[in-house]
Structure prediction request, 155 residues.
Amino acid sequence: MITYYRDPDVLVTSTGVRMSGRDYRLGDLAEVWHRQGRRSWSAVAGRGALGLAMVIPVLVGLLGIMVALVIDASTATTIALAGGGILIGLAAAPLADVLLEFVDRSYDRGSRRREIWARVRGSDVLLLDTDNAQRFGQIYRALQRALDHDSVPRA
Prediction:
């Protein structure tokens, strides 16, 4: 028996599938397909907020430098404003690294519900319902590999 995918809730092997607490033999799955739900705008808005959080310190730093160069102030004030602007801009680099990690994770999770369906003994059965895009892709590919393996003629 070959194991194509395993996690605490899902098992896909060369002989069968366990999803949603139910077991199915590969031969019972007459047809398998997937569906995507509607986009979660809160996930998209969260990514936008992360993008703004990365850009705002750079913009504030640039604004500080521009103000320092435009206003007619003493040399010490000009240097303090320009230096502060540079420091704020430089502080954005480590912040951006942390925020980019959150953006990567949000894309792994995805912004839609994803479902795997199968026709089992004439009935349509929901095998999996998740909003984790990466996990969905791994499970769906594993299921396809298992079904392809199962369709190979055996001697």
Remarks:
- The mean pLDDT is 85.
- Residues 3-39+112-150 form one domain.
- The radius of gyration is 26 Å.
